[in-house]
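We give the chain.
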Amino acid sequence: MGGAEETSRSLEEPVDVNDDQGTVDIIIETVQSEHKNNDDGDIDDDSMEGLSGEQLMKLNILYKLPEKSPMQLDKTHLITVVDNSGSMSGNPWKQVQEALLTLMGSSLNLKHIHTDFIVYNTSAQRVPINKDNYVRTIETLTTCGATSFVDAFNEVFDVIYESRNQFTSTVVVFLTDGQDTINRNKQQMDNLVPNLRERIARINEQVTIHTVGFSRDHAFQFLKQVSDNGGTVSGMFRYCEPGDDKTILLQKLEELFDFITYSEKTCNINIELLDENSSFVNQTKTPKNVTLKGKLAMQENQKSTITGETWIRLEPPTCLPNVKVSLELQERDADGKSNISLVIKGIERKKLTSSDDKSLWRLRILERNMDDLTDRVANAVSSKSDVASLQVRVEKYQKQISKTKVFGNGISKQLREVIFAVIKDIQKSLDEVQKMLADYLRSGTSELSLLARAHDMRYQAVFNKSRRQRVMDQRVSKNIQQATIAQQQLTSLTVNKVEINNLSQDAQGFFYCILSQNSVRDVLLGDDKDDAIGFGLAIQRSEVVLDEPTLVRLHVISGTLVSRHAMLDALEYKINVSSHLKAHGGFTFKDSELGVTTIGISREPINAWLPLYITPSHWERIKVILKPCLGYFCTLDPLGYHYKQLDVIFTVLGAMIGQLSQYNIGEHQLRLLFSVLRTCTACLTDFDLETQVNECLVNFIASPAGRTKDVVPNLYTVVGYALALPLKTRKEIFKDEDTLQKFLLAIISEWLRRCAGTLYREESVVKLNGILNALIGTDSIDKSERLLDKHDAESELIRLCLNTNHEDINITPFDPSADLTEPDIDSTHSEHTDKAMEMWAEKMSGISENLDKTNRKAYQKALVEVNKWCQVGKTLKDDSAKNTENTDTEPSMEQVDCSEPVEAKRCMYVKETVVQVMAYIIKHLIKSSYPHVTSFPGLIAFTTRWLTSQYDALELDGNSGIAPGRLIEDIKMAMNEMFKNFDDKTSKEASVIGPPQNEVNIERQTNTNIDPPTNTVVDGVKTKHFDVDDDSVELDDTNNVDYEYGIGDDDGNYSDDVDSDDGDDTGSASMTRKKSNKGMDGFKVCLPKLLKIIDNNCDVVLLLQAMLCQSVRFHSNSKARAAIGSKEMLDTAADDSSVYTAILDINRKHLTELTVSAQQNMLNQVLWKRANQCMFHATTPLAFVGYLMNTYTSRHEGFPDLIDLFMTTVDTDVKPPALKEKIHIVLTGKYLDHPVFDNGNQWLPEKKMAKNFQKLLGDEIWGEYEAELRSSVNIHVYRESDIPNRHGHCNSNPYIPNSLRKRLGMALIKEKNNNRSRKKSK
């Protein structure tokens, strides 16, 4: 498969070899070193003169084996031993039965494997089994009794003893879910494995024992000892999770059975290195000696070829090693083993140079290192050793896998398949090692009070994607070390008694856990140092939260404060009496109830908890426990923390501000909000987030590239970022009013684009272009249509947006090809033109280069005729281009008496229909909006007031964590001014878009239609239902985000009107809340008014027109990123009307280009049809070539239509002239060996098309053509090792189809009967 440079060392003197002596040829493979030396036990890249220090030694042994050697026997004895004790009852036994049915069915059908079956519980017994009765036998087995390993192994030995000397080898597969529950004698159990091995050794049998453990209670060390030392050959140990389904369990057992069924006959090869500086890789105890499993590759002339390979480290790398090699054989008729010294015929070095070989070399090293790592991890776990260094190696190997090159230059399709297969195997091994490490590390959580309780209540989810399980295991390995350090920090924390004594009564009353009845003072002075005060939430998670934590679905942001321990108590109780899903909901959005752990003071559901800053002493405690708290919040596992989860607190802050309204700005709510704000500010400082947050905000303000959902998954997060900035940084970023204005406009513009992404995700391109066309107003209009000036257009847009009468507007899809009419051109075939094309083609193809000298006048006449034929197409295209340029897409201005230029008129006046379309689209976008439009007034008011003030969250520290009264009153005043502004301007208008319903479910109702959001307020408790879409983040479900603020009103009253379907007073996800008289009914919000509040001087209609155009056209993240890169998407947050006008011009040009392109495509189709007719009827091959060269440059465009035209004559007697020659030209791209089409490249049709050509031309002619095409194609080069691929093909046996084999006189191969499989599938 690739090239290699070879060097060799021959023996100084020829060695005479007897027939009975064995010989060995050694090849040392190596590559060019690419890295510097490292000492971490992985790839050693010591190099000299460019060679890698680690090299692969391959041995090829030729030896005449004794007649009774085990290597020459060809039968394996398989003994399957299954635990059917009482502990296996239920689902575990069903799983094992299903797996055994498949696996035993496979082994019983193999002639070279003899199968025995043993079941054991209190005692062990053999079960007669064969291929006729195995199904009935396995299905009728039941579970009962205790577990006796002693009886099981005694029965195993009896079976081996009775069949001694009958088989090449014996393989035992031992399955159990627990420990020996009968034989309690420790000495007896300790001697069980050594005694078994000794008994087996006495009868001189080669026995391998593989073990499989099921539950977490299985005796890991014992089963590992059995697999390693129970037989004469080491076996494998496999662990099956209790939650493994049938498929996973089957895969794990199949791996063992595949090893048994398809393993080659082996013997031991002993190698000793004689050089001082050479050693074997990964042989720490005996670096100079190694024993390999040699494989019997083939037998010839009564001699057997045995192969083996191992890795060596050479110093210097250019030297060749001095070695001694011997073959270890076990004699059947004698005790012990014989060691046969082998004669070394020669040692050769092969330096791999091709890119294919280098790619596979790196993967082979990774495979080798993974095998070594697996052994090290197993040993470390069994001996309970430190695994920190092994965790580092796991992370390193994972990075190496992710960086493996699988595409690009030098990577063929065949090599890619090999690489994928190897990577899959390595990744599987790596996942198993990662899982083993994670389970081992979890065993130590009971010693950490910080994690113990939450870890006991972790949700052991089975993720839909193995990558996410891998992510969780990696986090466990990383976070357990940090948790150990955090536990030490927590233990050393002390409480500032002065600070506690200075806590005000107001603070102690506010920061008070309603469940435990403890204030923050009680919590800090208590014995539980991992307890703290926080607030409750009700959330739902999908698996995507592991990747993007801010996409957690918020149902309720409660005003109820609870302590961490009280929340854990409630969670533990709910899990015990109900289930995990009832308590917290698990990982799902679809058709699932909202998990409810407890209820708050206004009867709102709570199933999650986040901490608060409050005081410095309290924060010191929070800093230690925050990571496991966020880990459980997002992944239901305290060890599932990731740094991205810190963004959740900022997201919650932004969401809380979005809930502010004229009836939802009570003192309790604002106190909690400012406490969360103080927590976010502390996170920025103490978790080193300032640089990251500052960069995110600057990029968000600067360009649309910093706003897409892959950068900012949740817009509330960026709001939380801005508000949490320290005062100094805040003033640096939001240095003036223009920056703040741009920030708010950026939020609105990106919000609109995301709304469009949700609404138009499945919409067709022609419909989207129709909306774009209607927004721009490029359609022609009659003179009766009104043009509105800037002021009238703005007033009309606001009126229409506030109007509750939803009038549908029919927007015509924009399909520029729909109304096009084909021009009428003459496609009549002309023999006169044929002759001209023939002469022209003869000259242009190089067939007759001197034609112009011998018959210049005739050629000139032919050239005129050819140009005349080609000119028809050029004329049509030129006329079409002129018509496009002269098309006036602008509305008539005759009805407007205005002296300004046309461009000025276009900016000053808007068609009334455009305004109507804008209002219609805005209403529909708002239906699918997140956040809802009603969230923006409060968000804008609070954000504007906070960012333009001199307030600092640090002020709370001087008031026991409570926001000062003046701050709360100032915010209330700003909020009232905002809502008063809306009321004054719109009091006589219709009510808000999407009127509230009489009741609303907290549970999301599945509906494919986009319904208006609902809003309900119950004494300050508000719920909303929104949809949010994301196409840049990997989503498993639609990310709907619902918010509810569960706090009391200013008088401290809380609603109690909660209805529960099942009568449970804790409430359920199907609960409903009745509509209150106090709500949003008198509060009217529309998007144009919001933009005027942000920028009073902006042209709202023009700005919204530009925003909507970009939102509709670039609604997905992928389209937006591409448009930003090509500068087709501009920044609508810029306060510049010329930018808005440029956006309209860009989109107007886009529609024009679509029209021009459609016209060009139509004309091309007409011209291709004309040319195809001429080629079809061409009287000579050269005339055909002339038409072909003047029409097509490749086998694209209208070429398939030409082939279809030929195929219309398959079942007719009328054939076009020179059909065989024309088809030959089409297939080969040549005529008379001169390239005339597609640069002379050949075309080998696919199978279905080839059959059509066969019908068209006949078997004989098509057979000749196919043989010519295939014989001129380069034979594929397979891997250099000549190992067959999965289809059995290699360089010595390449794939050659039967059609070509017939022509070459080769033996035919047996092809699969696809018809049978098709019938079965039907």
User: Anything to note?
Assistant: The chain has 43 helices and 31 strands.
